[in-house]
Each structure stands twice: as structure tokens, then as C-alpha cells.
């Protein structure tokens, strides 16, 4: 029974995360890292691929809870159930920040009357493929299969038995009574981790998240939405390295029933500048610094070997494979793990890296002595290669082209080098060389990437197609917002790529540039960019209306996927999506404070 993507909520411990449905079922959980194999994969198959549901025994399979919400400023989820006979309870779902082993904790608390509760746990390691051997030990259950082991216990103990390759529990709670379940993973060759008290862990988790959320400096009219987006970005952060995963999932489709299904559990360089800007502008300097340090480690090496994405630890090898035993979300196959786009040439990432490091320097983050040398090496490579065609920002799997956005970001790279050297003459570098490159790129884009008849920048040189990425032209300073070419581009993108008030990345009709069949929904990050562009070009009322329309797309707990289908009125793509939440934060800053996050001024 496939739940809509927006029916899920995320829980996590800053190293991995799980998705909890409105029906009380955890249908996705990767252990021990975001990019590890899932032990609950019902999200991409069916219940036999692994899940864990806790709900009133009388609730039918798939029946949703009465209501749910995060505890303010935290990643602790509370789901409330009201039963027909007047009883009620809540289930508290969370993952405490781990000491050694990851724990999933679910606390059932009676609120009124008496409610009989059922827990059904189906562990399936290796993305729902492997049924573990489960046995009792020391009063608890332990599941083992190959390298994976998981312990399952309740406090206080409740009746538990094995049935149909699952572990079932049933008990009754009255008002004020609580029963906690704990699922703990560890490598099977290691001894059992020391058990963690779930009730103490809950209080510590609430305090940790509230303290973190209280650091937010944003005090505008969209405080609740901004805080939830920042908490979501924090939830997608891999604490040991500071890397931020693009999403918690793989293969949630951009088109229901289609093949546009990709693995987003990695870190994209394209996200770096916008993410860094949102963290710096809202007061999260530690997170911004950690993200900057992850970025420097990931890109270190030969500039010719720069990748568009890396693993959350900075890993370079992300081979793509398909999992044929999973039917896919709503039969959207194939299910993919890894991402073959890692080997693509995307010249815009050089500009995004240099823009990020320039932004960090401008915001006052302590400089790393080697960072400038890395930037010069990247810029030297880009100077020799910016005229090449590439796969572009959207990782198209069609032929390489001269994408306008890639050229604009090459201009950004040169521009930020010039700004750095002008601001700090003590730094080593040939400022005239980079000025010359900046002018050459700018002239090339304006001559070859602009359609004077339609008064718009196009997706690629010689193309009639448009691209929502050109909405970033005024934001990065390539042209001022009042330039007629900028205004024309905003109008053209809205007219030709608009979808019920939102905007698509590019056209997927006819001979699509991405080389793939099918279509996709409106791209939420691009829709936030449109709101920013409308604001920058003086249409503040329209910008605010669009932003508030986008807030309505968020689900009941404030989460956004990658895309949205405005006709079916459902979210699409991997979930929750960091890029969408970064867009929300940055647009709220732009609209709420009258100025956006720390970005370059218009040229």
C-alpha cells in the first residue's frame, strides 16, 4: 500500500535517518550511514522488504494516525491516535545522537482510556533482500545476517513472538502508561553495545535539538518554516565530516511509474554556495565551517579530477547499480543505488566551489592556508577548459552541450578570484589574468547564450529551450537585476516553464535534452529561485505570493521533496530534499529581511 511521499516524516541521529509514515510505519531506514544498505525498504517495494509499524491493534493496515507533529524545534516526532471507543495514545519516534551504535526509539504513551497496541517489526537487510535469523537472548531479540546485527527490546518488557518472518508485540496502555521500544544496530562480529535508556535519551534529544534551534538568528515572518528547514538540513548532515546529503532516500521518482529514479544520499558541490549562504545568514557558523572543511577535503587533488558529487565522507567511488528485487515506489523502476552522474563533466561546479570559498572568506570564517592554492589550481584548470561542452547542472544523460549556466558559473569563478585579489593584495595571483578571463566569458555568454528576438537567455548555445538555472544570473552578479535581458529571462522562464504557478527545470517534451523518456514535476528549488528573481526585479508582491504558495506545498510537518505535481497535488522525487529547504530559507531571508543571504553584489 504505497503512501504518498508527503505522508512521511524524517527522524535521524546526524549520521543516518529513517522515514516514518502517517500510518505509524517506518518504511525506510539505512544503517549505520545515510548511504548504507536499508534494513527497512518497504518505501521502494512492499512490507516484505522491511518495515516497522506501531499502531492501535484496531487500526487497519495503512490507516493513518489522527494527527502528528514535531516537537517544536526538534526532530522528535509525535503521532497521535484516537480510537473509536474513546481511547487515545501517542507514539514518539526519534533517534538519539549516538554514542557508538545507532538506536531507533519508539515510545508509546497512553493518553486516555485503554488502547491495545500492536508492533510489527520486519527486518530485511541489504535493501529488503535478506531475511535475518532472529532468536531470543537475555530476554531480548537479536537478528543476524552476514555483517549486520540488530537488537530489539522493550521497556518494560511486553509480550513478543515471532510470526511469518516478523517480530510481533501486543500490549495495552492506559492514561499515563508508557512502553518504549529500542532497535539497535551493530556489526555482527562485534559485541552487543551497552543499552541506552530510552526515556533519558528522549529528554536529552529534546534538549539538544531545542538548544540547536535556538541559535537561529532569523526573526522574520516565516520563522516556523525557516526553523523547520534548518532542522531538516541539520538532520541531513553527516556529523563526523560535516557533509550534507542531498536527500535521505534513493529512487523516489520524478514521475510516478517512470524511470527518472536516482540516488541522492550523497553530497553535491552544486549545493555548496546556497547551503553555505543559508547557514551563515541564520547564525550557524559551526555548521558552515564544517561544510566548508568537507568541501576543501573533497576537492583536494588534481583539478581535472574534480567530481560533481562525493560520498558523505568525501568518497569518490559511487558506482551505480540496480536492485531488481525491489519493485520501486508505486512501481517506478528501476531502483538505483549509487549514481553514474559522478563521472560527468559539469563545469559549473568549479564556479560553485570558488563562490563558496569566497563567501566563507567574506563572512569572516577563519581562512585555511591551503584553500587559496586549491582555488588557484581549480581556476587554472577552468581557464583552459571553460569553452568545452559539458553535461550541465542537471546531470543530463544526453549529449554534452554549451550550457549557459555552466558558462555563467565559469564567469563567477573568475569574478570571485578578482574580488579576492582586489580585497587582499597580499594574496598571490595574477588579477589581470582573471579579469581577462572574466570579460571573455561574459562576452561569450552574451553573444551566444542570449536570444535577442525573444529577449531571454537560453539553456544552451544555439538552443531554443529555456532553463530555470538562468534565473540565477542576477543573484550571482553576472548582470544587474534591472538589466532588460534579466527581466526578459525571468518573464520567459515563467511563461514557458511555468506549471500552475511553479516552474520546471527545463522542458522534457519532444527530443528532451536529458536523453530520458517521460516527464517530471515542477522543481521546487527553481520555484524558489523564481520568487527570488521576481523580488530582485521589483515584483515583490508576486514574489511573496509565490513563496507562500510554495509553503503550502510543504507537508503537514513542514517537509519538501525535490519536485511537486501541481495537477495531482503530490510531492515527487527524493525526500526530504536539502536543495528545496535551502531554497526556502534563502527566499524567506530575501522576502523577510529585505535582503538575501551573503551573496555577491550585482556586477
Q: Would you give an account of this structure?
A:
This protein is an alpha+beta fold and 603 residues long. The chain is 30% helix and 22% strand. The strands form 8 sheets. Strands 1, 2, 3, 4, 5, 10, 14 and 15 form an 8-stranded antiparallel β-sheet that branches. Strand 28 (563-565) and strand 29 form a beta hairpin.
Nutshell version of this structure?
The protein is 30% helix and 22% strand. With 603 residues, the chain is an alpha+beta fold.
Task: Provide tags for this entry.
603 residues; alpha+beta; 8-stranded antiparallel β-sheet; 13 helices; globular; disordered C terminus
In terms of topology, how is this protein built?
Elements: E1 8-12, E2 17-21, E3 25-30, E4 38-40, E5 51-56, E6 67-70, E7 77-82, E8 88-94, E9 103-112, E10 114-122, H1 125-128, E11 133-137, E12 140-145, E13 148-155, E14 159-163, E15 166-174, E16 178-187, H2 198-213, H3 223-235, E17 237-238, E18 243-244, E19 267-268, H4 272-281, H5 285-299, E20 309-310, E21 321-322, E22 336-337, H6 348-362, H7 371-385, H8 404-423, H9 431-448, E23 450-451, E24 456-457, H10 484-497, E25 498-499, E26 502-503, E27 522-523, H11 524-536, H12 540-553, E28 563-565, E29 570-572, H13 578-593
Antiparallel strand pairs: 1-2, 2-3, 3-4, 3-5, 5-10, 6-7, 7-8, 8-9, 9-16, 10-15, 11-12, 12-13, 13-16, 14-15, 17-18, 19-20, 21-22, 23-24, 25-26, 27-28, 28-29
Helix pairs in contact: 3-13, 4-5, 4-6, 4-13, 5-6, 6-7, 6-8, 7-8, 8-9, 11-12, 11-13, 12-13
Amino acid at each position: 500500500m504505497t503512501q504518498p511521499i508527503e505522508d512521511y516524516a524524517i527522524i535521524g541521529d546526524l549520521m543516518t535517518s529513517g522515514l516514518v509514515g502517517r500510518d505509524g510505519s517506518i518504511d525506510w531506514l539505512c544503517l549505520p550511514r545515510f548511504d548504507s544498505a536499508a534494513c527497512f525498504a518497504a518505501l521502494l517495494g512492499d512490507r516484505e522488504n522491511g518495515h516497522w509499524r506501531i499502531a492501535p491493534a484496531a487500526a487497519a493496515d495503512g490507516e493513518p494516525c489522527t494527527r502528528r507533529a514535531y516537537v517544536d524545534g526538534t526532530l522528535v516526532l509525535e503521532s497521535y491516535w484516537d480510537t473509536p471507543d474513546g481511547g487515545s495514545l501517542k507514539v514518539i519516534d526519534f533517534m538519539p545522537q549516538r554514542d557508538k551504535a545507532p538506536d531507533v526509539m519508539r515510545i508509546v504513551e497512553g493518553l486516555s482510556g485503554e488502547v491495545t497496541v500492536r508492533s510489527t517489526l520486519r527486518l530485511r537487510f541489504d535493501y529488503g533482500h535478506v531475511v535475518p535469523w532472529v532468536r531470543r537472548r537475555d530476554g531480548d531479540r537479536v537478528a543476524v545476517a552476514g555483517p549486520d546485527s540488530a537488537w530489539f527490546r522493550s521497556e518494560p518488557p511486553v509480550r513478543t513472538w515471532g510470526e511469518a518472518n516478523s517480530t510481533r508485540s501486543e500490549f495495552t496502555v492506559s492514561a499515563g502508561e508508557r512502553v518504549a521500544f529500542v532497535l539497535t544496530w551493530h556489526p555482527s562480529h562485534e559485541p552487543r553495545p551497552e543499552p541506552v535508556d530510552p526515556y533519558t535519551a528522549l529528554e536529552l534529544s529534546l534538549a539538544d535539538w531545542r538548544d540547536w534551534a535556538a541559535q537561529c538568528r532569523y526573526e522574520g515572518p516565516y520563522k516556523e518554516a525557516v526553523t523547520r528547514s534548518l532542522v531538516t538540513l541539520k538532520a541531513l548532515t553527516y556529523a563526523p565530516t560535516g557533509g550534507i546529503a542531498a536527500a535521505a532516500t534513493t529512487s523516489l521518482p520524478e514521475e510516478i511509474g517512470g524511470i527518472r529514479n536516482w540516488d541522492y544520499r550523497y553530497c553535491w558541490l552544486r549545493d555548496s554556495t546556497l547551503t553555505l549562504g543559508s547557514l551563515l545568514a541564520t547564525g550557524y557558523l559551526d555548521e558552515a565551517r564544517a561544510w566548508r572543511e568537507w568541501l576543501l577535503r573533497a576537492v583536494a587533488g588534481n583539478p581535472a579530477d574534480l567530481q560533481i558529487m562525493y560520498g558523505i565522507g568525501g568518497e569518490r567511488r559511487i558506482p551505480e547499480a540496480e536492485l531488481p528485487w525491489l519493485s520501486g515506489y508505486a512501481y517506478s523502476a528501476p531502483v538505483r543505488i549509487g549514481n553514474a552522474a559522478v563521472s560527468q563533466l559539469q563545469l559549473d561546479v568549479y564556479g560553485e566551489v570558488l563562490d563558496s570559498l569566497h563567501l566563507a572568506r567574506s563572512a569572516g570564517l577563519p581562512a585555511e592556508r591551503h584553500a587559496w592554492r586549491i582555488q588557484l589550481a581549480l581556476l587554472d584548470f577552468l581557464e583552459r577548459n571553460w569553452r568545452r561542452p559539458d553535461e550541465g547542472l542537471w546531470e543530463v544523460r544526453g549529449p554534452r552541450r554549451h550550457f549557459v549556466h555552466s558558462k555563467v558559473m565559469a564567469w563567477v569563478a573568475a569574478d570571485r578570484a578578482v574580488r579576492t585579489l582586489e580585497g587582499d593584495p597580499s594574496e598571490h595571483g595574477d588579477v589581470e589574468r582573471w579579469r581577462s578571463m572574466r570579460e571573455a566569458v561574459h562576452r561569450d555568454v552574451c553573444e551566444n547564450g542570449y536570444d535577442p528576438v525573444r529577449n531571454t537567455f537560453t539553456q544552451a548555445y544555439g538552443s531554443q529551450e529555456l532553463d530555470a538555472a538562468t534565473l540565477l544570473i542576477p543573484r550571482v552578479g553576472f548582470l544587474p537585476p534591472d538589466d532588460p535581458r534579466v527581466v526578459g529571462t525571468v518573464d520567459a522562464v515563467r511563461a514557458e516553464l511555468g506549471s500552475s504557478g511553479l516552474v520546471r527545470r527545463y522542458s522534457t517534451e519532444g527530443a528532451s535534452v536529458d536523453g530520458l523518456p517521460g516527464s517530471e514535476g515542477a522543481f521546487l528549488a527553481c520555484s524558489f529561485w523564481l520568487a527570488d528573481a521576481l523580488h530582485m526585479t521589483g515584483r515583490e508582491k508576486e514574489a511573496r505570493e509565490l513563496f507562500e504558495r510554495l509553503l503550502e506545498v510543504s507537508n503537514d510537518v513542514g517537509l519538501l521533496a525535490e519536485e511537486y505535481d501541481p495537477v495531482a497535488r503530490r510531492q515527487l522525487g527524493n525526500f526530504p530534499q536539502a536543495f528545496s529547504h535551502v531554497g526556502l530559507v534563502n527566499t524567506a531571508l530575501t522576502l523577510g529581511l529585505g535582503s538575501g543571504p551573503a551573496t555577491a553584489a550585482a556586477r
